[in-house]
Automatic annotation (TrEMBL):
It comes from the Bacteria. One of its GO terms (biological process) is lactate metabolic process. Pfam families: Fer4_8, LUD_dom. This is Predicted L-lactate dehydrogenase, Iron-sulfur cluster-binding subunit YkgF. SUPFAM superfamilies: 4Fe-4S ferredoxins, NagB/RpiA/CoA transferase-like. The keyword NADP does not apply. Keywords: 4Fe-4S, Electron transport, Iron, Iron-sulfur, Metal-binding, Repeat, Transport. GO terms for molecular function: 4 iron, 4 sulfur cluster binding; metal ion binding. PANTHER family: LACTATE UTILIZATION PROTEIN B. The keyword Ligase does not apply. Residues 301-332 form the 4Fe-4S ferredoxin-type domain.
Length: 459
């Protein structure tokens, strides 16, 4: 058993049987499902909208090289700078070079999962640069020293009492401070840092080929402050985030908002087309967009996996997955959790395939992820594909392979199937009780098998 799988099983055991953890997730997920059900009513024909979005993303991926070149040409024409990063080291090197050129000491950062993918915070901290998360949820988990728990809601696993206690310990705020008071404190801290920051870093929800623009979607306003107040803005965006036209936003923005948070549209929807122009009064003096591949081209080239690159990172599949709702986000130990994380993590260059393929086994294959995806990605089919690839490459744990061989041998041997109950129960206790788990009682074999009862005419 590889180390990642062992850690996953250990964390799953802890979270699945934590009543407090389950209670918090149930509460938060319940609010989400109520809001989404209302938000979906804005669509006259939701299924048609989902299929149209899927078709647009399919056409985009098929024409991605040309669209990326069109985007680069139009973005650079307005003074923007595009950096192509093949993998994480190239992205990190590009960012480090900009930091050195600008003699950066303070960086503010808006919420972005791709920065988790390239381990940005750790990179900057190792260089002695202060990096501050400006999304409230991201700020909370950064203070706590944790990774984001959820693609959209980074601190979903924490109660308001947890956060009050954390802030009291770290910042000496009142131990019983209200959410409003804690938010006001964070706002005060961040406003000061926004004006001091040398560089602002963000992700990007969409890229627009026809206008050479990047779209940033958020609810708190921190993204706008991050991308406009510092003199330099760096956006790290996966190449799959492309859309052909700005006109596509009238479909994708409502889908992202509804499936992400249950809103008709998010509060702040910003289109950035480069640095501040001569006639503009605000904005960064320089704007870089780092286009990250990191295995995405290989995924797009695989006909079985290509659909995974249609994802708009709404988090809906996480919120509807019975496994995620049981074990939570940190258990996945990957920048991307839930069904979409289980699908793409083995293929992105964030480790070897075998380091993350066990995530595809953490699924009931109920299809809720596919059913709830705003762009109709066949997630459960790709989970099966990962499993079949794992089997074909002989990557399953040796103990498991041995067990299934023994099971197959027994199932194909009538004399072994009809062996005395005592011997079968003994074998089960010796070899299966540990796998079955301490919290469950291993079933006992009956005195007679169905085959024996059939022959005696008792069934």
């Amino acid at each position: 058993m590889n180390k990642n799988l062992a850690t996953f099983l250990e964390k799953s055991e802890e979270k699945a049987f934590s009543k407090e953890h389950r209670k918090r997730l149930k509460f938060n997920m319940g609010k989400y499902h109520t809001k989404v059900a209302i938000g979906k009513q804005q669509f006259q024909n939701l299924e048609q909208a989902r299929q149209l979005a899927k078709n647009i993303k399919a056409q985009t991926i098929n024409n991605l090289p040309a669209l990326l070149e069109e985007f680069e040409a139009k973005f650079t024409a307005r003074g923007g700078k595009v950096i192509w990063a093949e993998d994480i080291p190239e992205a990190q090197a590009a960012i480090s070079k900009i930091m050195e050129e600008k003699a950066a000491k303070v960086v503010v950062k808006s919420k972005s999962m791709i920065t988790e993918e390239i381990q940005l915070n750790q990179l900057l901290e190792n260089q002695g640069i202060e990096v501050l998360e400006t999304d409230l949820g991201e700020f909370i988990v950064q203070v706590k020293g944790e990774a984001p728990y959820h693609i959209v809601t980074p601190a979903m696993h924490l109660s308001k009492e947890d956060i009050a206690e954390l802030f009291h310990e770290k910042f000496q705020t009142a131990p019983d401070a209200s959410p409003e008071a804690l938010t006001a404190y964070v706002r005060q801290v961040l406003r000061e840092r926004f004006t001091q920051a040398d560089i602002g870093i963000s992700g990007g929800n969409f890229l627009l080929a026809d206008t050479g623009s990047m779209v940033l979607v958020e609810n708190e306003g921190n993204g706008r402050l991050t991308t406009t107040l510092p003199k330099t803005h760096i956006a790290i965006v996966g190449i799959e985030k492309m859309l052909p036209s700005i006109e596509d936003l009238d479909l994708f923005l409502p889908l992202l908002a509804t499936f992400g948070t249950g809103q008709n549209t998010t509060v702040y929807n910003t289109i950035l087309s480069g640095p501040k122009q001569a006639h503009e009064v605000d904005g960064p003096e320089e704007m870089y967009i780092i286009l990250l591949d990191n295995g995405r081209s290989d995924v797009m080239a695989d006909e079985h996996m290509r659909e995974s690159m249609y994802c708009i990172r709404c988090g809906s599949c996480l919120n509807n997955c019975p496994v995620y709702q049981t074990i939570g986000g940190h258990t996945y130990d990957s920048p991307y959790s839930g069904p979409i994380g289980a699908v793409i993590s083995p293929h992105l260059k964030i480790g070897e395939f075998e380091d993350n393929v066990h995530l595809s086994q953490a699924s009931s294959l109920c299809g809720s992820c596919t059913e709830s995806c705003p762009v109709n990605i066949n997630l459960h089919q790709m989970l099966l594909y990962n499993r079949s690839y794992e089997e074909a490459e002989n990557l399953r744990p040796k103990e498991e392979q041995l067990m299934w061989r023994a099971w197959r041998t027994a199932m194909l041997n009538r004399s072994m199937m009809n062996a005395p109950r005592f011997s079968k129960n003994l074998v089960g206790n010796l070899f299966l009780s540990k796998l079955w788990g301490e919290r469950r009682e291993l079933p006992k074999f009956p005195k007679h098998t169905f085959n024996q009862l059939w022959k005696k005419g008792k069934v």
